[in-house]
């Protein structure tokens, strides 16, 4: 027996360049139809940048929505017509001032699948070259290289809490020899 829901239609409630909120007419199997909120986002590309000293490029930043400070990896919205890889490379440069040449797939996450179509594509980059101060100066108060050996403890102490950062960093830790 399938538990797939039937979608009868949807209507936008709010739309901006960043997000769209829809009311979707759904019918779970064996249940009455109802309208369910769905938050639609553009895909996000994020990058764990690791250097040859076993350090990760991190950004210390404030998130007004939660009122918290934490360490994050470079990440951002994939622009229309942009490949995931190009967005990942661009975000590293814009947010940190460091340039990576290549990225490889590391993880794929749907962070809130019950209420959103959000997709986070996490990449890994080996090495980076400092080019200039960050273009997006509002993104972080500090950009630093953090030893990988400190990452698990930082996650445990809630110094790293962003889902895309935790996902990528745990993947790196899990794949270490």
The residue ranges in which pLDDT falls below 50 over 5 or more consecutive positions are none
CATH architecture annotation of the largest domain: Alpha-Beta Complex
Question: Helix tally?
Answer: 3
Could you estimate the helical fraction of the residues in percent? 10-25%
The order of strands across the largest sheet is 7-4-10-9
CATH class of the largest domain: Alpha Beta
How are helices and strands ordered from N to C?
Answer: EEEEEEEHEEEEEHH
Supply the helix-strand structural class: alpha+beta
* Coarse shape: elongated
Estimate nothing, just give the exact number of structural domains: 2
The CATH homologous superfamily of the largest domain: Nucleoside Triphosphate Pyrophosphohydrolase
- How confident is the prediction overall: mean pLDDT? 95
Terminal-residue CA separation: 42 Å
Largest sheet: 4 strands, mixed
Range of strand content: 35-45%
CATH topology of the largest domain: Nucleoside Triphosphate Pyrophosphohydrolase
How many runs of DSSP E, i.e. beta strands?
12
Rounded Rg: 18 Å
